[in-house]
Amino acid sequence: MWKWYSRRYSQVASGLRQQTGEALRKTCHIVLTTIYHPAMLTALYDNIQKHGHLDEVKVWVVGDRKTPVSAGILAREVSRKGLETVYFDIPQQDEWGKAFPLYKLIPYNTDGRRVFGYLRALEEGCKIMIAMDDDNFPTDDDFIGGHQRSGQKWSGTMLREPAGFHNICEYLTLEPHRLIFPRGFPFQLRGHVNQPEFVPSPKDATIGVTEGLWLDEPDVDATTWLNGQVKGVGYNGSDLFVLDQSTWSPINTQNTSVVRELIPAFVFVTMACPVPGGVLDRYGDIWGGYFLLALIQGTKYHAAFGRPLVHHRRNPHNYVDDLRHEYWGVILTDWLLHLLRNSFKPRSRNVSDRLPELAEFLEAEGVTQLPGWGPPEIKRFLQSTAENIREWSSACQQVGV
């Protein structure tokens, strides 16, 4: 079976490379998915052209069944201007996906389909991959230059928090002034301010992931929005700060770059899981980001935050619906973080080899240690997440990572 999938993958990948007319040229790939008209592509082109990075960048727009035809038209227009942009529509996905058992596990009409763009970027040799949302618009910052710090050595000091978590939203100047926390920040620590200690970095420290922050509408959860509007009007932090591995902060898929070796660890957890009251949603990137932080423990890689900034001009949201979708993610995240930080001890040296260990851990520890108030649907969700992680790991191996 594996040989058939590998052979089928080679045939499909070869055909797609012939269609797009290039292979292994661009070192920096940007991936986003959308069900709207991706107007941000024009702003992205303007920024990349202004800072002289057009020859280094390729963009993947992963479509879905609800994506308007105008998305493909705009992608072609931006490509003609000089920013190579591929609109990866559903018919192309369906054909390409025949090579991967993972493909059937990712539902249509979910943002989890962005992982197909991750695999396409890996196929074509990206060194750095940037995940964006379709409502992220670059500021005047050098967007690509900022993210090219992923993969660089870091010799400066690192931040360490006694509580184990650092609130990156403290670096935003807000109107009105409020203490807010990024989506996915543990609730048991909310209400406290940062108390960072500055510690020396290990001699081989390397930035493996860079998350740029967001002006206008910060990436906060529905409980925050329901307590009143807030706007990010400025950034008051350093250009870049790096966290010690013992200190975590949520990592999302808005304005976040990872080096090639860590793309397999940049798991996007498939959502839309049926649970009491609706579906579990809006935590796929957050749990995936925490998985990444768990998977890089003891390696040379560290997470960095700061610039480049983007304007987050949110697509329409109903915050009550968002709360309903976030409910189980909100109340499970503190439990999951305690489990990951205290019990997950990866054995393999290679980060990609740790993915099956994580899947095994979720089944052996997550399912059995789920609190008694967790419904049976959550156990099934954890089991399916473990299965998806295994298939995601296999897909990454198929494309050579």
Keywords:
single chain; 401 residues; alpha/beta; Spore Coat Polysaccharide Biosynthesis Protein SpsA, Chain A; 9-stranded mixed beta sheet; two-stranded antiparallel sheet; 11 helices; globular; disordered N terminus
Radius of gyration: 20 Å
Main sheet specs:
9 strands, mixed
Q: What average pLDDT do the residues reach?
A: 94
Strand content: 15-25%
Assign the CATH class.
Alpha Beta
Helix content: 25-40%
How many domains make up the coordinates? 1
Total helical segments: 11
Name the shape in a single word.
globular
Contiguous low-pLDDT stretches (5 residues minimum) are: 1-7, 17-24
Span from first to last CA?
A: 20 Å
Descriptive overview:
- The chain has a single domain, classed as Spore Coat Polysaccharide Biosynthesis Protein SpsA, Chain A (Alpha-Beta Complex).
- The N terminus is likely disordered.
- It is globular.
- α8 packs parallel to α9 and α10 runs antiparallel to α11.
- The strands form 4 sheets. Strands 1, 2, 3, 4, 5, 9, 11, 12 and 15 form a 9-stranded mixed β-sheet that branches.
- It has 401 residues and is of the alpha/beta class.
- It is built from 11 helices and 15 strands.
